[in-house]
Amino acid sequence: MPPLATPVRTPVRPGTPTPRRRVRSGRGAAGRSRAERLAPYVLVAPAALIIGVFRLYPLALGVNFSFTGDGDRNGQAVGLDNYAALFEDPLFLASMRNVGLLVLLLPVAVLIPGLLATFIYLRVPGHRVYRSVYFFPAVLSPVIIGAIFNLLLAFDGPANALLGTVGLGPVDWLGDPDIAMFAVVGVHIWATFGMALVVFLAGFATLDASLIDAARVDGASLPRVVRHVIVPGLSRTIQFVVVTTMIGMLTSMFGLLYVMTGGGPEGSTYLPEYYIWFQQGQMGRPALASAASTVLFGVMLVVGLGQIAVLRRAGRED
């Protein structure tokens, strides 16, 4: 039997440190895992603090203030008297009917930027120019937009002059109670659809282009591609645009209303936000305005959740 080989040892120079294995202590690993768990909360804390201080706390104060009185009853608890007064006020009821009109017109406000974003995504001729032109109204002030359309929609303005060239009579766009609200909403859609267009284009960036190419190879028409490929692929984007557009229509039309109609004619263009300003700034009834604000918040919450539920159900059915 051959003798066993003797292992060769490498001589160690004097002063050379001996390598040691790093042993992770349980305390260090536990500390790191705890830090990893707390990291998301630390990152979210500043935003949550800002929302709590500047959003939720004022909202709670406003709700509490809506149960107090105005005038001689200032600061006194009045229960639901302000809410009862709201639903007996014809102006507030007119503003709530206009909210229903906005809900009915919401699909138009979402469909227009959605179709334009689709055409840009499909690279129609001149799509780069269209991208800039479509977004341009979003950078204009509502006051400037209202002043421009006051001139365009005047009874003797260019819009009626154009109608006259095709044999149609003049339309009192801003003076007819049955038409004025549609005119203001149309201007608002024109002025704000650029932001929704940007959101849709961002959603298209996440869409799998191979699905559209496959549908085209199979001979699918553009309407079928939109319905069966693009809409399901952008379901989350559509939900976001629907909710934000509805919120914008309920809370961002004050400038146009103030400049174009002033709530008229006959209160036909009142919206809750304009009613709130009128009661607070013109009538000196802040408690009633707080009650109207609370009702508006409740309407926005119900409408937004309802829209999300409907869109999710439609997405599952597709």
UniProtKB/TrEMBL annotation:
Low complexity: bias regions: 1-15
Membrane topology type: Multi-pass membrane protein
Domain of life per record: Bacteria
Entry keyword Mitochondrion: no
TM regions (residue ranges): 38-57, 99-122, 134-155, 179-207, 240-260, 287-311
This protein's UniProt keywords: Cell membrane, Membrane, Transmembrane, Transmembrane helix, Transport
GO BP annotations listed: transmembrane transport
Cell compartments where the protein resides: Cell membrane
Region called Disordered, residue ranges: 1-31
Main location: membrane
InterPro entries: ABC_transporter_permease, MetI-like, MetI-like_sf
Pfam families: BPD_transp_1
Ranges where the ABC transmembrane type-1 domain occurs: 96-307
Family designation: Belongs to the binding-protein-dependent transport system permease family.
Protein name: Sugar ABC transporter permease
Source species: Glycomyces algeriensis
